[in-house]
Specification:
It is globular and about 50 Å long. It has a 5-stranded parallel sheet, with helices on both faces. A 5-stranded antiparallel sheet has the order 9-8-7-6-13, with no helix packed on it. A 3-stranded antiparallel sheet has the order 10-12-11. A hairpin with a 4-residue loop joins β7 and β8. The two termini are about 35 Å apart. The protein is α/β, with parallel strands linked by helices and about 240 residues long. It has 8 helices and 13 strands. α3 runs parallel beside α4, α4 packs parallel to α8 and α6 crosses α8.
């Protein structure tokens, strides 16, 4: 079954451009010009991916991102202006998986869409019987790498966004070593980093919340002022 995408943008030229490229790649594509129209489309039929402009008339894209993430694991790619750094950071805090910066490169966006749809569909699959190869244990947690989920001591599961999963994976590979923001950016792929980008700090904050790591006195992800971040827990196969 082909993947489904909802494009939400008030610019008809952008909607037409993205719809053309995605349709040629075999996607089922629907379009909306406002957040309210998008909600009506999603109520009729869910999708695998939402491509969402931050600046929309009426309810903005950030609000819609927050609301979607509360109730859904749908993939979300934000479309932002080059000068929208604060909005971009807030969007990531709200749970967006990725962002692209205008002017758009449709081929790049289609590539990111393919990767995100694949991850979203994989995460939705029923959990297979866990094997030791799939699980990594650290501190009081286990990470199911195949399903991109954190599992606490009670067995409760928390889904990680792609960015959160990438960041945690980098930390686990480099436990005990301080990593600068530039080093973290180099190891987290598929995003166009901009000068003075604070997205790493945003991802760290989100990951701390999901790991219940008190930002005032963190035990797992330590801020090394002037240097970067230090992850303190070593991982082993569960």
């Amino acid at each position: 079954m082909s993947a489904s995408v909802l494009i939400v943008d008030d610019d008809p030229l952008i909607r037409e451009l993205l719809q053309t490229y995605l349709t040629q790649e075999g996607y089922q594509v629907r379009c909306a010009s406002t957040a309210e129209q998008a909600e009506a489309c999603l109520a009729e039929s869910p999708v695998d991916l939402v491509m969402l402009d931050i600046r929309l008339p009426g309810k903005d894209g950030l609000t819609l991102t927050r609301e979607l993430r509360v109730r859904s694991e749908v993939g979300i790619i934000l479309i932002t202006g080059r000068n929208d750094e604060v909005d971009r950071i807030v969007g990531l805090e709200c749970g967006a998986d990725d962002y692209v910066v205008k002017p758009l490169n449709p081929r790049e966006l289609v590539s990111r869409a393919k990767n995100l749809v694949r991850r979203v569909r994989h995460a939705r699959q029923p959990a297979p019987a866990a094997t030791t190869a799939q699980l990594k244990r650290f501190a009081d947690w286990m990470l199911d790498s195949d399903r991109r989920r954190l599992i606490d001591q009670d067995g409760s599961e928390t889904l990680l966004t792609h960015g959160e999963f990438q960041l945690l994976s980098v930390f686990l590979r480099n436990a005990g070593h301080t990593l600068s923001r530039d080093q973290l950016m180099d190891q987290i792929r598929n995003r166009e980093w901009l000068p003075n980008d604070r997205s790493i700090d945003v991802l760290v904050g989100r990951l701390r919340r999901k790991l219940r790591d008190d930002p005032a006195e963190p035990q797992l992800i330590i801020t090394i002022h002037g240097a970067g971040y230090l992850f303190t827990a070593n991982a082993c196969a569960a």
